Prior knowledge:
2,3-Dihydroxybiphenyl 1,2-Dioxygenase, domain 1
Amino acid sequence: xxxxxxxxxxxxxxxxxxxxxxxxxxxxxxxxxxxxxxxxxxxxxxxxxxxxxxxxxxxxxxxxxxxxxxxxxxxxxxxxxxxxxxxxxxxxxxxxxxxxxxxxxxxxxxxxxxxxxxxxxxxxx
Length: 125
């Protein structure tokens, strides 16, 4: 196998413009790509120069918006980021102290769930 990285993760959203506003204006992500392809739109956002991007895509047939879960976003200042999310009207659970550091959880407007993490120590092997 020659797999070297995860390039994109897809978050299904009902309204791509609303999702773009949230990811760019609230989370501070950059738009990496925003292409119209017929009836489809490829909207890719990422935090800074991160290698992995999130594609904000309308649900494929048989899927629904808000099904992404468990994506962990690292934060250099978890307390401040949780406060900014709350000030933007986002419901945030935590931050809570965990064996590996602190974390908080939140969801985007479509219900895609994220973990905001500030790791402070190595996980046991």
